[in-house]
Amino acid sequence: MAESLLIVENVSKYFGGLLAIDKVSFQVSTGRITALIGPNGAGKTTLFSIISGFLPVDDGRVVYDGADIMTEPPHQRARRGIARTFQIVQPFAGLTVRENIAIGSHLWQRSRAAALEAANQVALSVGLSAQLEAPAATLTVAGSKRLELARALAIAPRLLLLDEVLAGLNPSEIRDMVPVVRELTARGMTILMTEHVMQAVTALAEHVLVLAEGRIIARGTTQEVAADPLVVEAYLGRGAAKRITAGSMHA
Amino acid sequence: MKHYWPIVLVVALLAIVPFVTTSNVVLNFLITTLLIALVGQGWNLLGGYGGQYSFGHAAFFGTAAYTTAILQVQYGINAWLGLFAGIFAGSLVGAVIGVLCFRSGLRGSYFSLVTLAFAEVLRIVSSVTPITGAGVGTLIKLDLRPEAFQFQSRVPFYWIVLILVALSLVTVRGVENSRFGAYLVAIRENEDAASALGINAFAVKLAAITLSAAITAAAGCFYAQYFLFIDAAIAYGPWISIDALLAPIVGGAGTLFASLLGALVIKALGETAKLLTGDAPGLDLVIYGLLLIAVVGLAPRGVAGVLTALFRRPLRVQRGDDNG
């Protein structure tokens, strides 16, 4: 097995004249949690869509498990073991929670009964067992986020792309969700996550990439990137790092 | 097998009819109703379960009707073989339209409009080409022998269309309980989410339109044998495309009996409208239209939706009583 399950090499993406992703390169180590953070509009979701095959790139390539997957459509990448959640939840609204998850289970289970049975197990692992028969449309925000995760897990992925699964949750819901995500790496999954909730990033990610205006401006541990003046400026505006340092010296 | 008993029950009930009455009026009404139910069940599979709203199911109906008619008239081929040839031709047209539409990523109303265009192109082409009889149409020679798929009485026709409807119900029920059916519904609900889970949406939709076309094509073949005449306006006219989608939508698209229930309702409404208006020409269509608006307005999830709501309520009350 390669040491890096996913390698992104010099990927660029234009939306018309706008350069959304500018020669981004990074690697995601096998079996670890890597976080991709950055201000709104930095290109995180765009990058996820490129990796999962929903958007074509204008330049560069994506290598998964040693194979160049750039020409493959989303469903083939899913079969290879790349699962993603959507930042804006995309449930099969007319189906129940169990049926939603079973759609994922069907990738490896031909029979309806086996897929529904497998869905029960997945629901249990993300804490959705009580809502199995509820229509997906009736779930709370926290429930919908869990369902996004459950469906992705149902295809038994090796690489899991989590697009803000914690956004919109309250602090206690986040505390409930963090161990669920951590448990996944214990089961051998590799995770690339975007997140605004820094509390969760600190708790989960071993490696952090900071994306701003389509470029990676910093990488390292949470502490390292948080101390990086470039990162502070990307979030708070130019000159902010200096003002903060000056402020802390006055205090 | 427990999934199939409602079909057995419904088909058995319908099968009793010829033993109760042999009235031509009743049988004719039921035969045309079952014919529309069959046409609509094809649409229901693609539109109701798969969410791909076709406005051009006449393309499959008409191709099948012409195929079986032309094979008999021009090439002297047996009508029963014509039935299979017609179903094959209809599903082939379905597959071709499917490849063209889905390969180019047509979704929603764009798909609907392109299917409508295909049916219209076929209608215009068949109204001018010699092989279809052009403007005159194709008349199948009267040959009242079972071997020729023609009968003196309406009863055998009734049995045959009932068998075809039963087969379509079993097919759709089978799809409902399969991985293919689950994928089809997933695509209807959210195509992007479906592809993210490894579903090849193109392949699933293509299989669905082919199967859907095959069911509607069977109705086309039956039509040709029952009426022994086909022309461009009948085969590819908008009336059949409209009935194909109206029946399952009125019945409750995406449910097993949608098309059968809907066909009964729209045919009954049509007849009622005729009775109400008597001799005034065209007035029945106005009333028919108004009744349809009322039905769709009052029951947006169709007859099936109303029935589910009616049957669920007493159940809940009962459970409440048991607990109390």
Walk me through the structure.
The complex is a heterodimer of chains A (251) and B (324). Chain A is built from ten helices and ten strands. With 251 residues, chain A is of the alpha/beta class. Chain A has a domain of 172 residues: P-loop containing nucleotide triphosphate hydrolases (Rossmann fold, 3-Layer(aba) Sandwich). In chain A, the strands form two sheets. Chain A has a six-stranded mixed β-sheet with strand order 6-7-8-3-9-10, with helices on both faces. The model of chain A has no long low-confidence stretch (mean pLDDT 91). Chain B has one domain: Orthogonal Bundle (ABC transporter involved in vitamin B12 uptake, BtuC). Chain B contains 14 helices and two strands. Chain B has a two-stranded antiparallel sheet with strand order 1-2.
Structure described in brief:
The complex is a heterodimer of chains A (251) and B (324). With 251 residues, chain A is of the alpha/beta class.
CATH class of the domain at 4-81 and 157-250 in chain A: Alpha Beta
> How many distinct beta strands of chain B?
2
Order of helices and strands of chain A: EEEHEEHEHHHEHEHEEHHH
Classify the beta-strand content of chain A into a percent band: 15-25%
Distance between the termini of chain A: 51 Å
Strand order, main sheet of chain A: write it out.
6-7-8-3-9-10
Return the string of H and E elements of chain B: HHHHHEHHHHEHHHHH
Structural class of chain A: alpha/beta
Give the helix tally of chain B. 14
Give the CATH level 1 class of chain B.
Mainly Alpha
Instruction: Tell me which oligomeric state these chains represent.
Output: heterodimer
Radius of gyration of chain A: 19 Å
Task: Using the 3D structure, state the CATH architecture of the domain at 4-81 and 157-250 in chain A.
Answer: 3-Layer(aba) Sandwich
If you compute it from the alpha carbons, what radius of gyration of chain B comes out, rounded to the nearest whole angstrom?
20 Å
Say which CATH homologous superfamily of the domain at 4-81 and 157-250 in chain A is assigned. P-loop containing nucleotide triphosphate hydrolases
* Number of DSSP helical runs of chain A: 10
Roughly how much helix do the residues of chain A carry, as a percent range? 40-55%
Spans of chain B of at least 5 consecutive residues whose pLDDT stays below 50 are: 315-324
- Portion of residues in beta strands of chain B equals under 5%
Averaged pLDDT of chain A: 91
